[in-house]
Specification:
The chain is mostly beta strands. It contains two helices and eight strands; from the N terminus they run ββαββββββα. The protein has a four-stranded mixed beta sheet, covered by helices on one side. The radius of gyration is 15 Å and the shape is globular.
Length: 129
């Protein structure tokens, strides 16, 4: 059996993917991959996702320069979620979020309200031109 066939793809042919930073173990972001994106990721050792809004492959960092180098790919026990161990490059510290933050998970629920707790490292207006 092909290793790609062991993944439980959803009805749209996608699988959820979590990107985790090597070393710190910070969860940087969540995205989707289709078979082609995962094959390219393995081939290039660089994160390639499937953008549902764009309807095409999305090479992480193609616009921002904030590329994710992939060190390891893990699959969960149900074969329906992938975990990428990555190094976030292009800025120090690494920026994974389109808001200019290190991680996309920067909002914390406090007393019934969401509060941004992580700083913007770089103005998104200067990242995406």
């Amino acid at each position: 059996m092909n290793w790609l066939d062991e993944i439980k793809w959803d009805k749209q042919g996608l699988v959820p993917v979590i990107a985790q930073e090597v070393g710190s173990n910070h969860v940087l972001m969540f995205a989707w991959m289709n078979r082609e994106a995962l094959q390219k990721t393995v081939e290039l050792k660089r994160a390639v996702y499937y953008s549902r809004s764009r309807g095409r492959l999305w090479f992480k960092g193609e616009e921002s320069g904030h590329v994710q180098t992939v060190h390891e790919i893990r699959m969960d026990c149900d074969n329906d979620v992938l975990l990428l161990q990555v190094t976030q490059t292009g800025h120090d510290p690494g920026i994974a979020c389109h808001t200019g933050r290190h991680s996309c998970f920067y909002n914390v629920l406090e007393n019934g309200n969401w509060r941004a707790v992580d700083p913007v490292l770089k103005d998104p207006e200067s990242i995406y031109k």
